[in-house]
UniProtKB/TrEMBL annotation:
Main function: Participates actively in the response to hyperosmotic and heat shock by preventing the aggregation of stress-denatured proteins and by disaggregating proteins, also in an autonomous, DnaK-independent fashion. Unfolded proteins bind initially to DnaJ; upon interaction with the DnaJ-bound protein, DnaK hydrolyzes its bound ATP, resulting in the formation of a stable complex. GrpE releases ADP from DnaK; ATP binding to DnaK triggers the release of the substrate protein, thus completing the reaction cycle.
Domain named CR-type: residues: 138-216
Places the protein is found: Cytoplasm
Cofactor note: Binds 2 Zn(2+) ions per monomer.
Named cofactor requirement(s): Zn(2+)
Species classification: Bacteria, Pseudomonadati, Pseudomonadota, Gammaproteobacteria, Thiotrichales
Name this protein carries in UniProt: Chaperone protein DnaJ
Taxonomic superkingdom: Bacteria
SMART domains membership: DnaJ (SM00271)
Domain J, chain residue ranges per copy: 5-70
Residues annotated to bind Zn(2+) 2: 168, 171, 190, 193
Organism: Candidatus Thiothrix phosphatis
Length: 386
C-alpha cells in the first residue's frame, strides 16, 4: 500500500511555514476528529493520516529527513521515530497544545486514568424457581431480566443524536480536579461533570444522558440436570451493559427448588414417606412406589415391619450436577391405624386382640418392654414419696 505524500495530505506547498502546517492540520483535525465522527472508520483513517503528516512535518529534523528520503526517511521501522498511539491513544504534547482549545484537552479525556475509562457492567442475579423434576432432570427456560442496556438511540454516548458529549472544561476530561490546600494538593471528583469527564449539553431524550437504559430482555437458560437449591448458573456477558464501552457483567441464575408433594431431596438422595396398612406391615406384601421420573417401582415389605422403617431403593435418587454417581430413593413406611371400621372388621380385630393378649409379650415385645420400665419407674416414685 503506497503512502500519500505528507504535503498532499495536509494540502500545503513544499515550502509551507509552520503556521501554514498548523492551520491546515487544525482544519483537518476539526473535520475528522473521532469525537466528531463516532464510528466512522474513514474519518478516523483520515484523522490518523493528517496527524502523522503533521507530526513529521512540524518537526524540522523529521521534515528534513522526509524531504530528502521520502517516507523511508521517517518510517518507524527504520528507527529513530516512534509514532504516538492511534487516534484513540495518547497524543503528543504538540497535539495537546493544538487541541487544548478545540476539545478541551483531548489527551485527558481519552488517555489512561481519565474518568472516561471503560467500566465493566454490574453482575446481576436472577432467582429462578424450579420444580424438583426440573432441577433433577434439567430444563431450558426463558427468563425475563430487567437490565441496563446500552441506549440504542445514542449508542451509549448519552448525547442527543446529532450532538456529541464535550470534554469537561473544568477537569479536561479527567473527572478529577486538584485542589491546593496548604501544602497539600488533593484530588477531588470534578464538581462540574461529577467525575464523568464529559459534559452533555443536549442529553439523549431516551436515556436522559445516561447512555444506558433499563430494558427487559428475554434469555433462554439451559439448566443442567442435577442442580440443587442455591446452585448458580453463570451466563457470561448477560449482566448489565458496561460503561464507556466496557464489557458487560455476568448474569447469575440462582436456583430455588420448590417443595415437592412426595419427595424431599437431601444431597443425592430422595426421601419419601409411604403409608402402609397395618395388616401389610404385619403380614408383609408388595407395594408400588413412584419414582421422580414418573415411573413406579415395586417395594417389598417383609412381614412384621415396624412403622418408621426405611427401605433403600438403589440408584433411584439424583445424579447431582457435581457427582458421577446416582443417589438412592429412601422410602420410610408409616403404618396407618385403620379408620371407619365396619362392624365385621371390629369383630375381627377384637378377636385378634384377645388372641394377642393371650400370647403375652411374644406378639408385642416393644409394648411389654416399655410397660416393664414404666412399672419400675412408678414403683420408685411411690417409694420416694414415703
Ligand atoms: Zn440515549
Ligand atoms: Zn469535569
Amino acid at each position: 500500500m503506497s503512502k500519500r505524500d505528507y504535503y498532499e495530505i495536509l494540502g500545503v506547498q513544499k515550502n509551507a511555514s509552520e503556521a501554514d502546517l498548523k492551520k491546515s492540520f487544525r482544519r483537518l483535525a476539526m473535520k475528522y476528529h473521532p469525537d466528531r465522527n463516532p464510528d466512522n472508520a474513514e474519518a478516523e483513517a483520515k484523522f490518523k493520516e493528517a496527524k502523522e503528516a503533521y507530526e513529521i512535518l512540524n518537526d524540522p529534523q523529521k521534515r528534513a529527513a522526509y524531504d530528502q528520503f521520502g517516507h523511508a526517511g521517517v518510517d518507524p521501522s527504520t528507527g529513530g521515530f516512534s509514532r504516538g498511539g492511534g487516534a484513540q491513544g495518547g497524543f503528543g504534547d504538540i497535539f495537546e497544545d493544538i487541541f487544548g482549545d478545540i476539545f478541551g484537552g483531548a489527551r485527558g479525556g481519552r488517555g489512561s486514568g481519565g474518568a472516561n475509562r471503560a467500566y465493566r457492567g454490574s453482575d446481576l442475579q436472577y432467582n429462578l424457581e424450579l420444580t424438583l423434576e426440573e432441577a433433577v432432570f434439567g430444563t431450558t427456560t426463558d427468563i425475563r431480566v430487567p437490565s441496563m442496556q446500552t441506549c440504542d438511540t445514542c449508542n451509549g454516548s448519552g448525547a442527543k443524536p446529532g450532538t456529541h458529549p464535550q470534554t469537561c472544561p473544568t477537569c479536561h476530561g479527567n473527572g478529577q480536579v486538584r485542589i491546593q490546600q496548604g501544602f497539600f494538593a488533593i484530588q477531588q471528583t470534578c464538581p462540574h461533570c461529577h467525575g464523568t469527564g464529559k459534559i452533555i449539553s443536549d442529553p439523549c431524550p431516551d436515556c436522559h444522558g445516561q447512555g444506558r437504559k433499563e430494558k427487559q430482555k428475554t434469555l433462554s437458560v439451559r439448566i443442567p440436570a442435577g442442580v440443587d437449591n442455591g446452585d448458580r448458573v453463570r451466563l457470561a456477558g448477560e449482566g448489565e451493559a458496561g460503561v464507556n464501552g466496557g464489557p458487560a457483567g455476568d448474569l447469575y441464575v440462582q436456583v430455588f427448588v420448590k417443595a415437592h408433594a412426595l419427595f424431599q431431596r437431601d444431597g443425592d438422595n430422595l426421601y419419601c414417606e409411604v403409608p402402609i396398612r397395618f395388616t401389610t406391615a404385619a403380614l408383609g406384601g408388595e407395594l408400588e412406589v413412584p419414582t421422580l421420573d414418573g415411573n413406579k417401582i415395586s417395594l417389598k415389605i417383609p412381614a412384621e415391619t415396624q412403622t418408621g422403617k426405611q427401605f433403600r431403593l438403589r440408584s433411584k435418587g439424583v445424579k447431582s450436577v457435581r457427582s458421577a454417581t446416582v443417589g438412592d430413593l429412601i422410602c420410610k413406611v408409616e403404618v396407618e391405624t385403620p379408620v371407619n371400621l365396619t362392624k365385621r372388621q371390629r369383630e375381627l380385630l377384637e378377636e385378634l386382640d384377645v388372641s394377642m393378649h393371650a400370647g403375652g409379650k411374644k406378639h408385642s415385645p416393644q409394648e411389654h418392654g416399655w410397660l416393664d420400665k414404666a412399672k419400675d419407674f412408678v414403683k420408685d416414685l411411690f417409694e420416694g414419696e414415703k
